[in-house]
Design goal:
Helix content: 25-40%
Order of helices and strands: EHEHEHEHEHEEEHEEEHEEH
Radius of gyration: 17 Å
Distance between the termini: 24 Å
Shape: globular
Strand content: 15-25%
Number of helices: 8
Length: 272
């Protein structure tokens, strides 16, 4: 896959990693625009190719009373407005076959959630839209097995595919990143490291996923050092009050320093 084929993406000749970042879920227009504006400025200053991330709905909730979204079309229109306002590509996750064609009208990258990446009909539906397909590695899958998920996309005559590692289940309530998987999966497609989801602590008794955001910098730095092509970070200006995944999101005020550090590490790696 060639990064510069993604519509509106910038700084593709900077030799930097690329970034997928934004809130877990679209909670409203004002918050999405506020977050996008700040990230666009940071990534422009640091010459990082950037894709705005926001889920138009959250179907994978632990409890029935968890926040799932503000309405599909309403959230998708906000994603389109972010793209048009800041001239950046956007990515959102889909959960059902019917989501693929609907979301493809509004965004540039369709993301397959980790727990659905073996769902052939869903992966094929995303691939057949012609959009870039971002495949989250299942928490239960080996890096080697992602070759078959990638092949499902390319067999649909769509070469625009990414793999995102979001950690592997470790016991019942923790995740761990096996950095050996990055060079393995790079044989099949460009690899993104989902830093924030890799620090989730799922299956908590309260029905709300926990997390370890204090480890974000550690995991992100290690990802750049081991050769990941892209970094995925969910961020919010008020994680404690975010309506989804606040426990493992990065405070937006900490993003610039983190990205500057990662750019410096990448520069060093490029010189080796």
């Amino acid at each position: 896959m060639k990064l510069d084929l993604i519509p509106k993406i910038k700084h593709t000749t900077s030799n930097n990693f690329f970034l997928l970042a934004g809130p877990c879920a679209i909670e409203g227009e004002e918050m999405a625009m506020q977050i996008a504006e700040k990230i666009v400025k940071i990534t422009d200053d640091l010459k990082i190719p950037y894709i705005f991330k926001g889920s138009f709905k959250k179907a994978n909730r632990s409890r029935i009373d968890s926040f799932t979204g503000i309405g599909d079309e309403k959230a998708l229109k906000i994603l389109r407005k972010v793209s048009e306002t800041f001239d950046v590509p956007t990515v959102t996750d889909i959960h059902e076959v019917s989501d693929a064609t609907m979301a493809a009208e509004y965004v540039d990258v369709l993301q397959i959630p980790a727990f659905l990446v073996r769902q052939t009909d869903l992966v094929v539906a995303a691939a057949e839209t012609g959009k870039v397909v971002n495949l989250k590695k299942g928490q239960f899958m080996s890096p080697e097995s992602m070759k078959h998920a990638v092949t499902k996309v390319t067999d649909c005559n769509n070469e625009q595919v990414l793999i995102t590692d979001r950690g592997t289940m470790f016991g019942y309530q923790d995740m761990i990143v096996d950095f050996r998987g990055i060079p393995t999966m790079k044989q099949y497609a460009p690899v993104v490291l989902d830093v924030t989801h890799s620090l989730q602590q799922p299956n908590q008794s309260a029905g709300v996923t926990g997390g370890r955001p204090e480890m974000i910098s550690t995991i992100a730095r290690a990802g750049i050092a081991t050769g990941t092509d892209g970094i995925f970070i969910e961020t919010h200006f008020d994680p404690a009050n975010a309506k989804s995944d606040g426990a493992n999101m990065l405070n937006l005020n900490l993003l610039e320093k983190l990205l500057a550090d990662l750019v410096a590490i990448r520069k060093t790696i490029n010189q080796l």
